[in-house]
Amino acid sequence: MPDDAAISDPVTGMRAAVVARLWGELQRVRPEGRALIALDGFDGVGKTHLARELAEHADAVGGRALVSVGIDGFHRPRAERLRAGAGPEGFYRGSYRYRAFFEHVVDPLRFGEAVVPAIWDVARDEPVPKRPRDVPPTGIVVVDGIFLHRPELVDIWDDSVWVSAPFSVTVPRGNARFPRRGDDDPESPANRRYVEGQRMYLREADPESHAGWLFDNTDLDRPSLRHGLAEAAAQA
């Protein structure tokens, strides 16, 4: 499910500067070839919107080509997700088709072939036409989504960004897309599947420790960017 989450105001001057700085940092990743970069974070934190901002900035200023992919385009069909379970475990373990993501994005990128950014429309619960996108020899593929540092994915990224905000912020943002869900309290039973599923992910994968950059998106007008432990270690 995309996490645009009520983020529709024009980009402020400070936010634009931080987005520009992040794009400058990302362009240094694997400059000799194609790069695969994750934008990871909680549901509702603003990853999809940040990916769009990066793409718009890249178009405006030039440099390496950017191709955007959302892991939400590789959801399992609703019936499969229900079979995986309605609780946190089902959300974490059974939401996505990672084999299809490798087949359509990861492997083609490594072999210099076109990538397919999406195969499924989660809202309509139906396939979407496969529309291959060429990636130039030094292009950057930015993948936004949840759970992107889980064990079967953590080693595929050339680098990654952990987009953060507390659940007290991300749950209301996420719920803004689904008014019938209603309760903005992260500890509400209505939010248990999503919040506890993401806590399970934190315990298992510790994504912040793997990310090259930490993008604090708590205040949309005043985000902050700093190097993560992984990037600091690479530069040491």
From TrEMBL:
- The domain of life is Bacteria
Q: Which Gene3D superfamilies match?
A: P-loop containing nucleotide triphosphate hydrolases
GO molecular function list? kinase activity
Keywords (alphabetical) are: Kinase, Transferase
Recorded protein name is Uridine kinase
